[in-house]
Amino acid sequence: YLEANDNGEAQVGVVWEALKTVVRGVPFGPIGRRGRLVGEILKVDRNYAEAPKEGLLRERRNLQTEFDLLITGKAEAQWRKAQGAAYKYGGGKGESDAGTLAS
């Protein structure tokens, strides 16, 4: 964790507090596949800032597309779930009918 995050960009105290949070197992910030993608995007951005190359731009675009698809998929799933709950428990016109159908 320290090798990846103690890169001089953040204050030592901030890195230390984040490390304690990770060790305790409390999720903070992006985690899982989303976190990996964010980390890879930042790495490509840093590399491009140091030495601009066409291949890095292509890689950045591919990572951003993968990230966008992931986030969009999660947002769509949450929206569908919310729509189902509104139907099941009522939330507008036909509220009494929806309750009857859900029973």
Topology:
Elements: H1 2-5, H2 12-24, H3 32-50, H4 54-89, H5 95-102
What does it look like?
This protein is mostly helical. It has helices at 2-5, 12-24, 32-50, 54-89, 95-102. It is flat.
In short:
The chain has 5 helices and no strands. The chain has helices at residues 2-5, 12-24, 32-50, 54-89, 95-102.
The fraction of residues in strands falls at: under 5%
Average residue pLDDT: 77
Order of helices and strands: HHHHH
User: Distance N terminus to C terminus?
Assistant: 50 Å
Helix content: over 70%
Compute the number of strand runs: 0
Low-confidence stretches: none
Continuous helix count: 5
Radius of gyration using CA atoms only? 21 Å
Question: Biggest sheet, in brief?
Answer: none
Keywords:
103 residues; mainly alpha; 0% strand
